[in-house]
Design brief:
Layout (H helix, E strand, L loop, with lengths): L3 H23 L14 H7 L14 E2 L1 H11 L1 H4 L6 E2 L5 E2 L18 H4 L3 H11 L10 H14 L9 E2 H5 L20 H4 L5
Antiparallel strand pairs: 1-4, 2-3
Helix pairs in contact: 3-7, 6-7
Bound molecules: heme C.
C-alpha cells in the first residue's frame, strides 16, 4: 500500500525533479526542452476561423449565386451532384445532398440538407470555409466562400437568385428550420439533479 510516508517521499522527489528541470532550462541547454517556436500571427489566424450564429467572425468580402454557380460546377458538383442532389458512393454511403427537403424534417421521411435542417446560414459559410472542398479544405478565398454559400442558399430557394451575400446580409438570412430546435435543460452544472441517475 502507498503509505503516507511513501507519498511524502515521492512528492519530495518530484519537487527535486522539478527544480532540476528548471535549472537545466535556465541554463539554456539546447539538448533539452529546446523545441518548438512561438506561433506566428498568421498561424493563429489560420486556426481562428469560427463564425458564430450571430455572424461574429465573418470576414469582409461578398459573393452572388451566379458567381457561386461556376465555382460549384468546378469544385463541388463531382461529389454533391450538379443540382446539389448528392451522389451515392457504393459501399461508402453518400456524398451529402445539399438542396431540398424543406418541410420534411418533422415527417416520417426527413431529408436532412443544408436547406431543410441547418438553423443558421452563417454556419454554412463556416463549414465550407473550414472543410470544403473535401480534398482541399481551406483553399477558397472569402469571396469564393460567400459565393458558394449564396449559390447553395439560392438553390434552396432561401434567398433570391440576385442576392449579394456578405457579412451583413448573411447574418440576416433566416433558415427555414431556425425554430425547429429547442434548448436542452440548463447546463449540467446548473441542474445536476436533472442529470443524476440516483438523484441528488
Ligand atoms: C471529394 C468529394 C467532395 C467535394 C469535391 C466536395 N464535397 Fe462537400 N462534402 C463531402 C463529404 C464526404 C461531406 C460529408 C462530410 C462529413 O459529414 O464529415 C461533405 C459535406 C458538405 C457539406 C455539409 C452537408 C451536411 O448537410 O452536413 C457542405 C455544405 C458541403 N459539403 C459543401 C461543399 C462545397 C461548397 C464544395 C465545393 C467547394 C464541396 N462540398 C466539395 C464531399 C465533397
Amino acid at each position: 500500500m502507498f503509505t503516507r510516508k511513501g507519498f511524502v517521499g515521492a512528492f519530495a522527489l518530484a519537487l527535486v525533479g522539478c527544480s532540476f528541470i528548471t535549472a537545466v532550462e535556465a541554463a539554456g541547454d539546447p539538448g533539452s526542452h529546446a523545441f518548438g517556436s512561438p506561433a506566428t500571427q498568421a498561424q493563429i489566424a489560420g486556426w481562428n476561423l469560427d463564425v458564430l450564429p450571430s455572424g461574429a467572425g465573418l470576414p469582409s468580402g461578398s459573393g452572388t449565386p451566379a458567381e457561386g454557380s461556376k465555382l460549384y460546377a468546378a469544385q463541388c458538383a463531382a461529389c454533391h451532384g450538379a443540382e446539389g442532389q448528392g451522389i451515392p458512393v457504393p459501399g461508402h454511403g453518400v456524398f451529402p445532398r445539399l438542396v431540398g427537403g424543406i418541410g420534411t424534417i418533422a415527417t416520417d421521411a426527413p431529408a436532412k440538407t443544408v436547406g431543410s435542417f441547418w438553423p443558421y446560414a452563417t454556419g454554412l459559410f463556416d463549414y465550407i470555409r473550414r472543410a470544403m472542398p473535401f480534398t482541399k479544405p481551406q483553399s477558397l478565398s472569402s469571396d469564393q466562400v460567400y459565393a458558394l454559400t449564396a449559390f447553395i442558399l439560392a438553390k434552396n430557394g432561401i434567398i433570391p437568385d440576385d442576392a449579394v451575400i456578405n457579412a451583413q446580409t448573411l447574418q440576416a438570412v433566416k433558415m427555414p428550420n431556425r425554430d425547429g430546435f429547442y434548448s436542452r435543460l440548463a447546463p449540467e452544472t446548473d441542474n445536476i439533479a436533472a442529470y443524476s441517475i440516483t438523484g441528488p
